[in-house]
């Protein structure tokens, strides 16, 4: 019997914490300005963008807190996997915020149908332009970590939605100024809300995949079993489980039946190396057995 452990415990979002911190500072500093001008100007597009920015502030703050929680030392002795899932929960909160912001704008937009809308177009376009600049800077910061961390990706998608919102705000101001028809503001706000909801659903599916402990993307269980079976000295593989602890931290467990005469230690080392090289799995718990019939089947 043997257990192989790869201890690569550095989470992907932890490496990009500074990006989250800078983006949080930029977005939080501008949120109040956009909210005040949105209320004063009467622009639903600007208010929807302010709502998205409020979601950004909370999402970025939650993402920052999650990266800190994930690296905290367990003093209870009961958190055997640490607190890395905090980053996934933060992404889930981002999904709820995005859905809430989209629903709010949709409801407000429906309520405005048929009502006259007057806007301070100059102020709307100016604030929209400043918001666009801030969002673009935040996007450039977060893009570097979005491909590695679900936590950072959630914050990145929030800012993507808000960037589109800023573009929509500018477009609404221009169209209302050209046509003198406030309907453009409502229509663009509704389009922004739809985009935000679609992006939230996509991110939500990824979050549920992690929380449901599905096999990670790019790791087909049948293929992983084949890779392990191909290891010299492995006669059979069973009880294979694959899941994601948090972004960049995939985990595997399996029982390996060693062929007659094979060294359990050699089989263990080669199997761990195969998982690491083929799939980047740094934490694999493998049990080497000499007799498959001696392994009791799971009852669940």
TrEMBL record:
The keyword Transmembrane helix applies. Residues 21-211 form the Cation efflux protein transmembrane domain. SUPFAM superfamilies: Cation efflux protein cytoplasmic domain-like, Cation efflux protein transmembrane domain-like. Keywords: Ion transport, Membrane, Transmembrane, Transmembrane helix, Transport. The keyword Acyltransferase does not apply. It is found in: Membrane. Belongs to the cation diffusion facilitator (CDF) transporter (TC 2.A.4) family. SLC30A subfamily. InterPro entries: Cation_efflux, Cation_efflux_CTD, Cation_efflux_CTD_sf, Cation_efflux_TM, Cation_efflux_TMD_sf, CDF/SLC30A. Residues 220-290 form the Cation efflux protein cytoplasmic domain. It holds the Pfam family ZT_dimer. Its main location: membrane. It is a multi-pass membrane protein. The chain crosses the membrane at residues 20-40, 46-67, 88-107, 119-142, 154-177, 183-202. It comes from Nocardioides daphniae. This is Cation transporter.
């Amino acid at each position: 019997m043997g257990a192989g452990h790869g201890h690569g415990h550095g989470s992907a979002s932890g490496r990009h914490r500074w990006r989250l911190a800078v983006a949080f500072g930029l977005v939080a500093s501008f949120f109040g300005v956009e909210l005040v001008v949105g209320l004063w100007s009467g622009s639903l597009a600007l208010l929807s963008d302010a709502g998205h920015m409020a979601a950004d502030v909370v999402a970025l703050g939650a993402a920052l807190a999650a990266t800190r929680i994930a690296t905290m030392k367990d003093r209870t002795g009961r958190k055997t996997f640490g607190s890395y899932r905090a980053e996934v929960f933060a992404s889930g909160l981002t999904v709820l915020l995005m859905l809430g912001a989209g629903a709010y704008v949709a409801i407000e937009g429906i309520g405005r149908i048929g009502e006259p809308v007057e806007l301070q177009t100059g102020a709307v376009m100016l604030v929209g332009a400043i918001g666009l600049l801030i969002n673009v800077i935040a996007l450039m910061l977060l893009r570097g970590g979005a491909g590695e961390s679900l936590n950072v990706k959630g914050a990145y998608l929030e800012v993507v939605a808000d960037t589109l919102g800023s573009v929509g705000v500018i477009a609404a101001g221009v169209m209302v100024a050209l046509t003198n028809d406030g309907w453009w503001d409502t229509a663009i706000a509704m389009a922004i809300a739809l985009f935000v909801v679609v992006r939230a659903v996509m991110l939500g599916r990824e979050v549920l995949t992690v929380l449901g402990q599905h096999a990670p993307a790019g790791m087909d269980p049948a293929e992983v079993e084949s890779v392990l079976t191909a290891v010299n000295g492995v006669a059979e593989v069973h009880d294979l489980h694959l899941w994601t602890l948090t972004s960049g931290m995939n985990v595997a467990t399996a029982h390996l039946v060693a062929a007659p005469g094979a060294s359990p230690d050699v089989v263990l080392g080669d199997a761990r190396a195969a998982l690491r090289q083929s799939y980047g799995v740094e934490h694999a718990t493998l049990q080497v057995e000499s007799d498959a019939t001696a392994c009791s089947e799971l009852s669940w």
